[in-house]
């Protein structure tokens, strides 16, 4: 029997009615002749409510106990989903991450899955049950402590279960119709993408697209699991994320793949500029060693050549705003020994990324990209590129205009022939 | 180092402030030089809220999933208590029932503890941690399923942990000052009992006293664990429940033990009367076999001799109101074959029980008891006795008057020399 893994997020499980709707969807999938394994998040805002409770009790709760607390959220939703399925006349069994065999490392709050031993799941499937698994959580390999995977971790749970069970597909149910060529709240003409490569999806997720959790896409790519991102509110097909060749028939395969998959944006980063760094060997290394020790994740780096021959240079880098304070403190501590003159912190930046596997063989992409930004009056502060991506940093207040201009320049707006560019492209 | 096991109920853990107060109390016990293991219930009304959620999703939720759901409540409170202790500069580790080694049978919703394997607890104590354990829950021995012990089960968890760890005392923290000679809401002159035998406490708990869960007293008696019932809101001593000889010094031992420990009452039962039963061998057996098959717990039974020589008799028995419907249906199904003429269901009854180990050697107790009821104008409908208890069934609306009359008749009212009768009686 084919195995389908489904994931339902908190917004699909907000209350009893939502849970019943999800249960009906699961039951339909089962009735269609599939073994069904479901990973669930905590209901609606319950994760935030638990976090608030923790804050009320302790300003800096120990990570082990925070994980113990947070995992109660999925425990509640999984039991309720199992009950709702039972109420439809089907049998269901819920399992915690630990019971489901989700083995992680020891990093409380941001654990990584290192193995999945789904013995209890397969046993339950063999007995004809639908299986509901608590997302976002696991048990550490050596210390047997309860761990959580960090925000969005239920996507990763679902993909990891799909890989361990050799599932045919991993369906990620969410409150949008799929992955779009840009955020529809900013670009009303953004189109739903029918099919996208895992490579491109990875870049989009890394650059601010919030539909799929980055690690889940990495996991799916490594184990070659097709992901189907779709809405839990409609029966419509969503977006298939896969590097496997398309199977929608031969007709589509003749159509050329689009050059550009989509435009992502991100306002979650800040920029730190280290001003007046002596232009000597090893100074940059000292700076980034200190920043790394503060556990900040650096994204883009630019080193400016000073205009006058002062022997000084400026180094700018971006990082998540949440890492900003720690990095600034780490840099202040080394100002004396490194000998730079000052620090600037700028959290009014925005990042725009253009992603497309077709960039590899289309050298004109960057020219079109920068022309579009120039015509929209958007000044570029930093640039970074990968084989299939160009990212720029701009002022935050210009970011929306920039996204719309680039989206239009690459013919992604929905009037311009969605069917031709995107239907069954075989990618 | 002495080991103290403490239990805190939901009313002591209603919100963040309460949790911090409990944490301070735990920290004091630790600082006084004890290893501390704490069993906690779910916060405030959270158990009822989870039950409501389950009802919204499914009118008859499967017991396995209901247990999975309910156990989230203690998971939340134990993590928060551990955080609050951590915030006081002490280290604490929380453990689920399963992690703590609370092994039960397979009966979801009313599991019995069959073993406690506290390896992780002793390991954590050896490392200097305070240990917080989720009450009310365990893991089944053969199927490894999460189970719950039924309402009030956290008392039993605490006593079972105390027994397994050979603790010096099990402190049950609650929202009253201890065990009273009667419910103070009905008898304002009721006195706190300083010391009571486990045997008497068992009878009081079985007859409606809600301070301690019946099974926890049975467990404590079997393993000879002293229980100290006390308020989490004051530092005052509460009630010591133990069959061990008193240790408050020789002075107290000379004082004679009181004849009567207390008066319990219970409005949770109903009375079923099977009318017109043919007075033949085996008819009662048929009736009670049917009732037992409905899983009703029968308490008292009376068979009336008919006034006229009709060859018919009436059989009355009491049972929990929650078992009433099932028992009535079971009886209706056998009315034809057994040949009785009708059934009466009466849920307006109340039960009063007088408990005291001194009854054994004081034959005048029952005379005083019935005289007090008669003078208070209370009609007795059923009577049952044990070696140390007399119980009667009355009209529910007369029950409070009856309790007060009996309490006064046995000199239990607080004006009449609490110190003489109850201080250090060495029982």
CATH T-level topology of the domain at 3-254 in chain A:
Carbamate kinase
CATH class categorisation of the domain at 3-254 in chain A: Alpha Beta
Beta-strand percent range of chain A: 15-25%
Say what oligomer this is: homodimer
Principal-axis shape of chain A: globular
Rg of Cα set of chain A: 23 Å
> Span from first to last CA of chain A?
27 Å
Helix content of chain A: 25-40%
For the record, the CATH architecture of the domain at 3-254 in chain A stands as 3-Layer(aba) Sandwich
Number of strands of chain A: 20
Brief sketch in words of this structure:
Two copies of one chain form a homodimer. Chain A is α/β, with parallel strands linked by helices and 427 residues long. Chain A has helices at 16-31, 46-57, 63-87, 119-126, 153-164, 198-206, 214-223, 250-253, 283-293, 324-338, 365-375, 399-409, 418-422, and strands spanning 3-8, 35-40, 92-95, 102-104, 113-116, 130-134, 137-140, 146-148, 169-174, 195-196, 227-231, 239-241, 262-266, 269-278, 301-304, 312-320, 342-346, 349-355, 382-386, 389-395.
Could you characterize the architecture of this molecule?
The structure is a homodimer of 427-residue chains. With 427 residues, the first copy, chain A, is α/β, with parallel strands linked by helices. The first copy, chain A, contains 13 helices and 20 strands. Chain A has a domain at 3-254: Carbamate kinase, CATH 3.40.1160.10. Chain A has helices at residues 16-31, 46-57, 63-87, 119-126, 153-164, 198-206, 214-223, 250-253, 283-293, 324-338, 365-375, 399-409, 418-422, and strands at 3-8, 35-40, 92-95, 102-104, 113-116, 130-134, 137-140, 146-148, 169-174, 195-196, 227-231, 239-241, 262-266, 269-278, 301-304, 312-320, 342-346, 349-355, 382-386, 389-395. In chain A, α2 packs antiparallel against α3, α6 (198-206) runs antiparallel to α7 (214-223) and α9 (283-293) packs antiparallel against α10. The two termini of chain A are 27 Å apart. The model of chain A is unreliable at 248-255 and 416-427 (pLDDT under 50). Chains A, B: It comes from Knoellia flava. Chains A, B: Belongs to the aspartokinase family.
């Amino acid at each position: 029997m084919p195995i389908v893994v489904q994931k339902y997020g908190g917004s699909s499980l907000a209350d009893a009615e939502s849970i019943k709707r999800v249960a009906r969807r699961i039951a339909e999938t089962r009735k269609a002749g599939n073994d069904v394994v479901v990973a669930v998040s905590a209901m609606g805002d319950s994760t935030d409510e638990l976090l608030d409770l923790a804050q009320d009790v302790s300003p800096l709760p120990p990570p082990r106990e925070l994980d113990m607390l947070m995992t109660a959220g999925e425990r509640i939703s999984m039991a309720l989903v199992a009950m709702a399925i039972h109420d439809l006349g089907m049998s269901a069994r819920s399992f915690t991450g630990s019971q489901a065999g989700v083995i992680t490392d020891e990093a409380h709050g941001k654990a990584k899955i290192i193995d999945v031993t789904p013995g209890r799941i397969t046993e339950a499937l063999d007995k004809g049950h639908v299986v509901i698994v608590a997302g976002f959580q696991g048990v550490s390999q050596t210390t047997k402590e309860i761990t959580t995977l960090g925000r969005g971790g239920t996507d990763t749970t679902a993909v990891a279960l799909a890989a361990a069970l050799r599932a045919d597909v991993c369906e990620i149910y969410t409150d949008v119709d799929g992955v779009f060529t840009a955020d529809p709240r900013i670009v009303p003409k953004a189109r739903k993408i029918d099919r996208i490569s895992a490579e491109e999806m990875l870049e989009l997720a890394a650059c601010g697209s919030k539909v799929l959790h980055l690690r889940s896409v990495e996991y799916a790519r490594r184990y070659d699991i097709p992901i189907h991102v779709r809405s839990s509110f409609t029966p419509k097909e969503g977006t298939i994320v896969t590097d496997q060749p398309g199977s929608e028939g031969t007709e589509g395969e003749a159509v050329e793949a689009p050059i550009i998959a989509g435009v992502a944006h991100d306002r979650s980063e800040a920029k730190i500029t280290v001003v007046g760094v002596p232009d000597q060997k090893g100074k940059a290394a000292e700076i980034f060693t200190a920043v790394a020790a503060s556990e900040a994740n650096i994204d883009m780096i630019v080193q400016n050549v000073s205009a006058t021959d002062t022997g000084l240079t400026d180094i700018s880098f971006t990082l998540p705003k949440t890492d900003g304070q720690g990095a600034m403190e780490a840099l202040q501590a080394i100002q004396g020994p490194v000998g730079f003159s000052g620090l600037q912190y700028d959290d009014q930046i925005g990042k725009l990324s253009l992603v497309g596997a077709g960039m590899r063989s289309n050298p004109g992409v960057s020219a079109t990209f920068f022309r579009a930004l120039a015509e929209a009056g958007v000044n570029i502060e930093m640039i970074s590129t990968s084989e299939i991506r160009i990212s720029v940093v701009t002022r935050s207040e210009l970011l929306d205009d920039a996204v719309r201009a680039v989206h239009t320049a690459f013919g992604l707006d929905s009037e311009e022939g969605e069917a031709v560019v995107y239907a069954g492209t075989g990618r």
